[in-house]
Design goal:
The complex is a heterodimer of chains A (298) and B (388). Chain A is mainly α and 298 residues long. Chain A has helices at 10-33, 44-99, 105-126, 181-185, 192-205, 209-259, 263-289; strands at 129-130, 133-134, 146-148, 156-158, 166-170, 173-176, 186-187, 190-191. Chain A starts with 9 loop residues before the first helix and ends in a 9-residue tail after the last helix. Chain B folds into two domains: 2-339, no CATH class; 349-387. Chain B is rod-shaped. The interface between A and B is large, with 54 and 64 residues.
Chain lengths: 298, 388
Amino acid sequence: MATRFNPNILPELLVDLQTAQQSAQTAAQEVSTGRSVNAPGDNPAAVAALVLNDAQTSEDAQFQTNISDLQSKLQVANSVMSNASQLLTSAISLGTEGATGTESASERQAIATQVAGLQQQMLALANTTYQGTYIFSGTNVTTQAFTADSSAPSGVVYNGNSAVNSVQISEGESLQTNLPGSQVFMSSSGNAFGALNDLVNALNSGTGIAAATTEVQNAFNEINSQGAFYGNALSQLTNAESYLSQDTVNLSTQQNSLVGANLTQAVSDLSQDETDEQASESATAQILQLPTILDYIQ
Amino acid sequence: MAASFLAMVFRSDRLQVRATAFCKRASTKRLSSNPQSSLTSFFNSLQDLSTSPTDSSLRQGVLTAAQNLAENFNSTASNLTQLQETADQTVTQTVGQINTLTSQIASLNVQIASATSGGQSASTYLDQRDQLINQLSGLIDVSQINTGNGGITLTTSNGAALVTGNQSVPLSTETNPTTGFQDVYSQGKDITSTITGGTLAGALQARDQTIPSILSSLDSLASSLGNSFNTINEAGTDLNGDAGTAFFNVPSSGTANAAATISVALTDPSQIAGSLNGTAGDNSNINAMLAVQNQTIVNGQTPLNAYSNLVYQVGSDVSTAQTESTASAAMVTQLQSQISSVSGVDVNQESVNLVQYERAYQAAAQVSSVIDSLTADAINLGQAITAS
């Protein structure tokens, strides 16, 4: 006797139909969202990696914000340094003029007054603020960095501290964001305030002008070498910025490879699934219409 | 036999469907407003503050981001707890359905026994009972023992009686004093942990294992983050020059309920202790807070890796449940098809049989008719002889 087949195959056909429909739906979802992964269950490993990718992308965007904040602040400091440098250049020419020995006492005093003016300007530069905080006070940013004090050897007192801050500008890379004013303007290898004060006193007294001018020259060199810090910091920011742009592109590529749909594949799957579905439907309809022996018995 | 096969398959099928449903809800609906983005935002706000530690609007930004993070932990935990409560309700409802079915099966047993002993066909009752057993096996794991004369005994696969002959053994639920959830009892004995199939096992698994495991990972994350930030903030000096205080309120011991209860302890932006040397502009302690991102504070993982693993765990649970559900469904179809190929009604076969029986009837009728006419002839012959 022949093997008895299942006379009621409709449930099986329905399962086939449902499978074809489900598969078409998945493909349609991929095509419409552009993502092959739409819930953690679709691909747990990819979604877990996506969590890290998202976080990294967001962190990169934050680093870029940090960089643009720092750029404004460092540019302010950088221009202070170049102004201070110009100011000391003027002081050197005035000192050189006073040191020639051809000037009268009153002429020297007039020069001294000019240098004293430069001294005031230097004090204003050293007390520059950025968004309400003093940029040369170390981390003591709410206190004015320098105050004039005629009893002090340099004519000023430093109220800040020697601490520095550093800020992350990319994963694992930090940038020192400030120089303490004591290091910039009152360094032992070139004390701008002390030199200007000495020059004013020398011009007024008429002695030691050349030595005081040399002091100013040393302070000028020191300011320029300290100023390089800000230039370097700014170029480090530019480098970090371009690294971050590239990293953002890489992350977005990685994200796409993790969860992005292969559209060509998805569209072709969709059309294949639709064909399958139609075939299943047509087969089901035909089987439903198959005659039985009763149709022939009169 | 076929019925108990089906019962077994239905059981695993339903279990997986339930687990899938729970995990799907957990993953898509509940975790979509996820703690990851608020965690990242929190660290980003600290990055902002590190560039300008005295800026009060940036400080406020950190505090707001911290509040968002805490609220996100709270709402995720509370959503998971709600799912747990839904599963708990399912347990109670399912126990009710099981009791209805077992009492129906017990009364069918009575009818089958009386029909069989009266020599009548009990096939309608048997069919009904098979259907009920199928339904029952979708709710709980069922083992069937035939006791002769159409009688059956039903137990769970671990031997707790459900139906013995004419008696059903109702299950009951009792509140567990520790968890507050319903335990399942049979004849005064707690059988919760022995249930292995059907909707009931699915709900129990989601309630007692799947969701608690996610919750506990979330608790570890919340607690580790909270404690780390507390330690760091307490080591620093705030904007007012005061010693730092706790950043978050987290349970003082253990991690239980940390995600549900975490909140921001600081009330004013100036209380963020960003300074280590005491001056307002120092950002060293903010950098220390930022470093938490890369510290393995959550069971040997960084906070983000811990969260990423949690997502993986949920996703993998869902994926496994879906795969097993599909496989079980295919098995059910296959077995149903096998049953049908043995016991299904084939119209052609039955029609042919019908024609055959009709022919037999016609033949028998023909024989009767021949005998009738023969008998009539014989009688007539007798009369003819007598008359002559």
